[in-house]
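[audit] Reproducing an earlier prediction to check determinism. Same input, same settings, fresh worker. If the tokens differ from the archived copy the diff job will pick it up downstream; this log only records the rerun itself.
[audit] input (459 residues):
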Amino acid sequence: MPKIDIDNYIEQSGMRKARFGGYEPEDVHQAMEDLCADYEQHLTAMTSELRTLRQENDALRRHAQGLVMQNQTLSTQNATLAGQVDKLQSYRANLETQFSTVKERSHSLTNQVDMLRLKNSDLTRENKELTERCEAVLCALQESTEGDPALCAQLRLELTGWVYQSAGYDETCRLLFEGGKSSREITLYCTDASARTGAVLRRSRAAILFSATLTPPEFYKTLCGMKEDSACVHLLSPFPPENLLVLHLPVSTRYKAREATLPRVVSAVAALALSREKGNFITFFPSYAYLRQAAELLEPLLDGKAKLLIQTPEMDEEARAAFLSRFSPEPDGRLLALCAMGGVFSEGIDLPADRLCGAAVVGVGLPQIGVERDALRKRYDEAYGDGYAYAYVYPGVGKVLQAAGRVIRSENDRGALLLIDDRYAADPYPALLPAQWTLRRVFTDKQIAEQLRGFWDQN
């Protein structure tokens, strides 16, 4: 509080002194009122200044709190960035390791390519030597008058074919060696005929290639040597799609899982065959061995309720005709045939109307692994970058579609198809199946029977 000099204030105010040495009361009273007024003004100014200082202090406090929070946020962000830096350093170290591995693999692949070139050169030389020997033997056979004439004629025919084919030996051909110490079979195998077929197509004014199972079309265009801009038309089936019931049982039929899933597969096949009082059915298996194992379980499961017909690899033309004759157009009971997928009964046969009511396809039709198939995969990997799909998946789908095509043969046919394999629900298979197919997922024999009963009742 400021100090006020009363005497000085009175003197400056011009108050009159009283007769006896004091001040006039009225002047003192007025001076005190003026003093109080000045004090109040001063006090009001100080109060306003104090309020302003408090506001500034509050603002500074809030600003300080904000800075503290920002500091905490920055500390958290700094810790996060430090962790990210550690991760990036670790990622960089992994990338460097991977790059080193890829670099080493690249060197290894380069060495393998060089070795393959040398091996191809050796094979070319061996093929030339074999051809020269064949030509020498062929000349000797032509001049020879001794020995069995029929055998000599057969040898001349085979040697002439070898010489003719060896003339076209190039990077698409492979020499395949099979056999042991006592005997060895040498095959001159063409793994990719697209250049040859393409040359024939280019000499033609126009060409039309068509089939019911050209899926996917790009695969067949490539292998047939057609131009990239060749027109490709996909026509839907003229048969009503509601006439075919397609069921899907997602059970693994891979080779390692077959023993465990075989009872489940067999029970589903039995449910299909027993879904009608009278009817003929076929089940296609990926191999004869798998077929025989299924037959052993099916016989007691069917318990005489359906006749079992089994295809064997030894069948001649007469046996095949007898096999097909069992599919009566007016069946008096149930017939279940077990056939090999990709065999003579999965394509090229016509069983219209009630001669065939339904079919089951076990597996996705993958060709069996062998020397020739492995040679195809390696060639397609080199030429097209997807050897497994070209050598196994696409040909397998073709066999599945061929087998499924036995069911519906006319506009009036109605039938059921049961696909047994979990891979039909995984890429790339859904895109490779016909667009007009509507797969109905089933998991139990009861669901199979209910779906089939409802479908047959619509007839």
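[audit] rerun output stored. Observation attached for the diff report: Residues 43 and 49 are 10 Å apart (CA to CA).
[audit] end
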